[in-house]
Request: fold
Amino acid sequence: MLSKKIEEALNKQVRVEAESSQIYLAMACWAEVKGLEGVAQFMYDQSDEEREHMLKLVKFINERGGHARISALKEPNVTFKSFKEMFEKLFEHEVFVSESINDLVHITLEQKDYSTHNFLQWYVAEQIEEEAMARTILDKINLIGDDKGGLYLFDRDIQQLTVASSASTPTD
Ligand code: FEO
Reply:
């Protein structure tokens, strides 16, 4: 059974994951209208993953005797100066999500809620992976600079990154 404090903290995270899904959906749209099909598909997939992160929390809250709250969301930014700026925002956002997960883990320890603590370890591992992926992408973008041919190849190759990351996604 979840304590009220844990339920509230988990519900806060539900909102963070839902807003992440919206942010990446807006990025997908921006990339798609710019003709960056590979980047757009990558962002659509990221958006879907964030919705899964949210659903996993929703189900956990409800199964543990709480009530998941589906709240209004903040409207995401929909335009970017460059695709580099867009990926910088993605990286910054993932760092923010990691901090949010860490705060949540901290609360579970304070409250001695070891089952929720155990449940959250999946998110801790996921954040390490997502931050690493965002950092790899930014490194590649910095290598490309203003080279149009490089951007073309990046847009093509990022789809493979998507395939590789979805192939390693656990199916539970
Ligand atoms: Fe669910 Fe990318 O944080």
About this structure: The chain has one domain: 4-168. The chain has five helices and no strands. Residues 17, 20, 50, 53, 94, 97, 130 surround MU-OXO-diiron (CB under 6 Å).
